[in-house]
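Annex B. Sample input.
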Amino acid sequence: MAASRVDDTLLIQLRDRVGRRVTDWRPSAEVLDVAPLTGGTSSLTFLVELTGVAAGESPVVLKVAPPGLAPLRNRDVLRQAMLQRAVQRAVQGAHRALAPDVLFSDPGDPPEVPPFMAMNLVPGECVEPVLSDDADRPAPGQVRARFLDAVQVLALLHRIVPGEAGLGDEPAVGLAGEVDRWTRAFATLPAELAGDYERAAKALRASMPAALPPVINHGDFRLGNTLCAGDRVNAVIDWEI
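Annex B, continued. Sample output.
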C-alpha cells in the first residue's frame, strides 16, 4: 500500500499507540514524530522519531497492516515479527543479521485498528540492480560482491532447522506446490507478460528432484529485498511471504 493512502487520522492514531507501546522497549522513550516511508505493497511503513533513547536507537521503522483489511497472509505483520525474531535468535553468534530486530509490537483491534511492529533502522540502501536505471545502479563490481554475499546469507538462512528455531509448526510447501502457485500467478498476467509459463511449468514438473528436508525460505529473496552497505548485505527485509 502506497504512502499516499496514509491520512492524518492514521498518523495521529499511530503516534498515540506507539507512544504507549514504546515504553515496553525503552521506559523513558517518547514519540516526537511519525512520518510515512514510500515503498511496499502489502503494508504501510513509517519512520518514528523518538526521544529518551540511546544514540543510534532513533528513528525506528514501523510496519503497519493496512487499516480496514484483515491482517492475513502477506498483511500479517505480527507473523512477520515472529519470523524475524526466530531467524535472528537462530543465528546469534554468526556475526551477521538475517533480519531487522523486532523491538516492540501491538496487536491492535483489526481490521479498523491495525496491528503493527517496530524494528531498528538498519543502515544500507535497497537497490534491485536488474530494475534500476544505470545512474542508480551500483558499480558492476559492487553488484557482483553483493550477489555473492547474498548467497552466503541465503546459505545461513537455510542452515536453520525450523523446529529448533520454534518454527516447526509452519506449513511446509513442496516443490509441486511452488510450481502450482507460480502457475496460478502467471495465469493472471496479460499474454505479453506471461511468457510460455505453461511449458515451463510442465518441464519443471517432469524434472522435479526428490524432496529435501524443509528449510526456512524468505519467499522473495533478491537484492531488492535487502539492505546493503558497500559489498555487504546488512539485513534481509520484507518477510511477507
